[in-house]
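I am still getting used to backbone structure tokens and would like to learn alongside you. Please make up or recall a protein chain and show it to me in full. Would you write everything just below, so we can both look at the same thing?
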Amino acid sequence: MLKLAVFDFDSTLMDGETIDFFARELGIGEEVSRITEEAMSGRLDFFESLQQRVGLLKGLDYTIVEKISHNLPYMNGAKETIAELKKMGLKVVCFSGGFRSATGYAKNILGYDADFSNILHQKDGKLTGLVGGDMMFSHSKGDMLVRLQSLLGITEAETLVCGDGANDLSMFAHARTRVAFCAKEILKKEANIVIETKDLTQILHKL
């Protein structure tokens, strides 16, 4: 029986990549999207790509960061799916290689129990181009999942994970139910549930 569900945020619970929305404000959307694509497809080290992309955001007003973070388009079915899983008795958690400004705000809207993500460093109201946090490396999600399972006394067999990119691979290694959601090829290969339509409620039909 499932007891824990862990969802990625960008392009999973949210329709798009938070960092791409920020980049568009600075007119560097295409450049940042290209790096994101390389990282999510597994062709670029996640840690290096994160630092590179955040570095390009240097100087962006933090008020803009918050405004964008609070107006992101959530994925079709995200709220309903989380509510249903919680009704079934699961703890639902969000792991994101993205940012707390977005995942912390979405927590109360989408209804998950906790979020683990990264924090954009700001000084004097502007981004410094630096980043820190829980999800900086390609192995971070797997590492955090193992710690969470240990803390909650939950096994791999009782765990569902859902994501779309290469940095979700590490958590796939520690869960029996592995959902690739509109995902990159590299992740689909390791999944046992593959969903190709942008509707998270499809997960409920597959359980």
Notes: The chain has one domain: 4-206. The mean pLDDT is 96.
